[in-house]
Design brief:
single chain
């Protein structure tokens, strides 16, 4: 079910937005829906990254991490017959 959202903007912005949408062959409602969906996707991705960062910090504080030199040594073997496999957290 679709719902209506109202936003107050100045007349010039409304006119310029409608002109821009029309120049793309789209309605202003369609462009606004695209903007809103993109905004929500970006917000969700930011929230996910933030949660992952908190988990990473907790892991580091608990002493669970992999040294950078181990990561680089593993990466150097990518695509070779001697792939070392991902290093384990200590």
């Amino acid at each position: 079910m679709q719902k209506t959202i109202r936003a107050r903007v100045d007349a010039a912005l409304k006119e310029n937005f409608e002109t821009a949408a029309k120049s793309r062959g789209q309605s202003s409602s369609h462009v606004l829906r695209e903007f809103m969906m993109d905004f929500v996707r970006r917000h969700e991705e930011q929230e996910k990254r933030y949660a992952e960062t908190l988990l990473a910090v907790e892991s580091i504080e608990a002493g669970r991490f992999v040294e950078g030199k181990e990561i680089f040594a593993w990466m150097d073997t990518w695509g070779t017959e001697h792939d070392l496999g991902a290093p384990k957290c200590k």
